[in-house]
Design goal:
alpha/beta; FAD/NAD(P)-binding domain; globular; 482 residues
Length: 482
């Protein structure tokens, strides 16, 4: 067995962007880094000339340019993630409720006009709420321009004393305390916006977090549309060029923790054993709770702070361009029945391929990706047909005569992929209050064990995952130097 053991400085389990960012950083510092990639997991789906990329929230399509620059390594010219040459849309996405349809304009005046039109009976209360969000945004802006602020803004890891004397405290009020004075429709509208831009389901978001996420069009930079699969592929190429190694495996069967020797990983269906000083869990943490056996107490304790509540199940539809209603945008959040729970097809996240983009769909066709929530405890394949009935009922409401313009409906990708430990599409709930600028759980879970997925900053969506990777890489590099 010994001659089959391979020793590395760092092993990454999973190929999410956060861990790959950390791995590329460490490989550039001449560390021996191995990425274990699940061979079964596929990031996209192609059929009959259509190409679909499943997504877990709308933030995967809107990422700040400055954050993308942080993961472009100077030694790799041409690997900068640039947006394609196309006009920047004036509408980020749409939110549809039973009696309300809102275009999320980037320009503040247009967005306010939408609010006043759809919620005209509570204009004064909404303006008061918006004024408070504006006040908090000014505080955040002041913090951002401060000389001692973290380079990973909005995250804040300054010592308590420095934060105290900086006099930049944000209000600790929760958003529900303000929203309780507004109508159920407006409250649901705000809640859907928060859920759509992150991976956290909550009725008690901090008001300062809401101010940060809902600052449409007010920031100096607006998010640019990115292709998540292409970004991940670029990162993997950078990782390999930096000296990292990738091994496709069936599964990690067991992890042993040895105080002096670090971690020892045994693989399913293989006699290979990989050892490393540090280990990065680069996939949903709840997938690894049993990996360490009785020595996994630290991971179990972390898991108590945040747990998956829903899984986002993707349906892929090839449809005719003619079925799309006038004015419907490429990104959409729709709730069919206001008082009902989100599962069962009642809440849908939709992404339409761009009109005329033949890399996504044949001429005159559009690729429609539809995400529907399912409680994590109901992932049996037998639930698929029932969920599809609810999804199609909702879609028929949005797209009149849809049944006459469908090329196919495919849910096979979801049935195959949701069992993979690399599958990242979960919506979480936190069991305790948390300081959102410091994260729900720490990057360093225990001695030499790190996480780089979405559980750290789920409310920041894809940006949170990128930030977790940057922080993990920095933390591990610092510990190697010490």
């Amino acid at each position: 067995m010994k001659h089959r053991q391979k020793v590395f400085d760092v092993i990454l389990i999973g190929s999410g962007p956060g861990g790959v960012i950390a791995g590329a950083r460490l490989a550039k510092e001449n560390r021996r880094v191995l990425l274990l990639k699940e061979e079964k997991y596929k990031p996209s789906f192609q059929r009959d000339g259509y190409r679909f990329i499943p997504f877990s929230n709308l933030s995967e399509n809107l990422v700040r340019p400055s954050l993308l620059k942080k993961i472009s390594f100077p030694a790799d010219p041409g690997k900068d993630f640039k947006k394609e040459d196309k006009p920047v849309p004036t509408v980020s996405y749409q939110v549809i409720l039973p009696e309300v349809r809102i275009d999320l304009y980037r320009e503040r005046s247009l967005l306010q006009r939408e609010w006043k039109r759809e919620f005209r009976g509570e204009r004064t209360q909404i303006e008061t709420f918006c004024t408070e969000l504006d006040r908090i945004r000014q505080i955040l802006k002041k913090i951002k321009t401060g000389t001692s602020v973290s380079s990973f803004f909005p995250l804040d890891f300054r010592p308590f004393v420095r934060r105290w004397f900086a006099f930049d405290f944000l209000p600790r009020k929760r958003a529900d305390q303000w929203l309780s004075l507004l109508s159920p429709e407006f409250r649901k509208f705000i809640q859907l916006r928060m859920i759509a831009q992150g991976n956290l389901h909550s009725d008690f978001f901090p008001l300062s977090l809401m101010a940060h996420l809902l600052g449409d069009g007010e920031e100096e930079e607006t998010g640019e549309s990115v292709d998540p699969e292409k970004v991940t592929q670029c990162l993997l190429e950078t990782f390999l060029q930096s000296g990292g190694r990738i091994e496709e495996i069936e599964d990690v069967e067991r992890a042993e923790v040895k105080w002096r020797e670090g971690f020892s990983l045994s693989l399913k269906g293989s006699e290979k054993v990989f050892r490393s000083r540090s280990l990065v869990l680069n996939a949903p943490l709840h997938r690894f709770v049993t990996l360490f056996g009785r020595k996994g107490k630290a991971l179990s304790k972390v898991g108590e702070k945040i747990r998956p509540r829903y899984v986002l199940v993707p349906f892929f539809l090839g449809i005719d361009e003619r079925v799309i209603p006038v004015g419907m945008k490429d990104l959409l959040v729709s709730l069919f029945d206001l008082p009902k729970p989100f599962e069962g097809g009642n809440l849908l996240f939709l992404k339409l391929s761009r009109k005329g983009d033949e890399t996504q769909a044949p001429e005159g066709k559009r690729a429609l990706t539809v995400g529907s929530l399912m409680p994590v405890g109901k992932l049996e394949k037998e639930s698929g047909p029932d969920l599809q009935i609810g999804v199609m009922k909702h879609l028929s409401h949005l797209f009149p005569f849809l049944e006459n313009h469908i090329d196919f409906i495919d849910r096979s990708w979801a049935e195959d992929q949701m069992e993979c430990w690399s599958y990242p599409h979960f919506f979480y709930e936190a069991d305790t209050d948390f300081e959102w600028r410091r994260g729900i759980i720490p990057i360093r879970i225990s001695r030499n064990l790190y996480g780089s997925g979405r559980e750290h900053f789920p409310y920041l969506g894809l940006e949170g995952e990128i930030l977790s990777g940057l922080l993990a890489g920095e933390e591990i590099a610092r510990r190697f130097r010490s």
